[in-house]
Amino acid sequence: VYTCEVPEVNGMAEELLYAARKYDLPVLANRCEQALIASLGVENAHRRSAIADFFGCRALANAAVAFLAER
């Protein structure tokens, strides 16, 4: 937190995104958003779109909408 170093967040990006927004940690929030974008799939695109709307993650929202539009 104090060094702005962020470990890999795969597998827990949703939970960490919540904490990052709650405690105003933009570097962590960005890393989580990028991890969620990278792991977009058919099984999670709708959920990721909802998460993006809830947390105001513009890049994730755009990626989810584009992913769903392709299907």
Describe what you observe in this structure:
With 71 residues, the chain is mostly helical. The relative contact order is 0.15. The chain is elongated, with a radius of gyration of 12 Å. It has helices spanning 13-22, 26-38, 45-55, 58-70. It is 66% helix and 0% strand. The model has no long low-confidence stretch (mean pLDDT 90). It contains four helices and no strands.
Write the layout of secondary structure elements.
Elements: H1 13-22, H2 26-38, H3 45-55, H4 58-70
Helix pairs in contact: 1-2, 2-4, 3-4
Summarize the structure.
This protein has four helices and no strands. It is mostly helical and 71 residues long. Helix 2 packs parallel to helix 4 (58-70).
Largest sheet features = none
Along the chain, the helix and strand elements come as HHHH
Identify the overall geometry: elongated
Q: How large is the count of helical segments?
A: 4
What labels describe this entry?
4 helices, mainly alpha, 71 residues, 0% strand
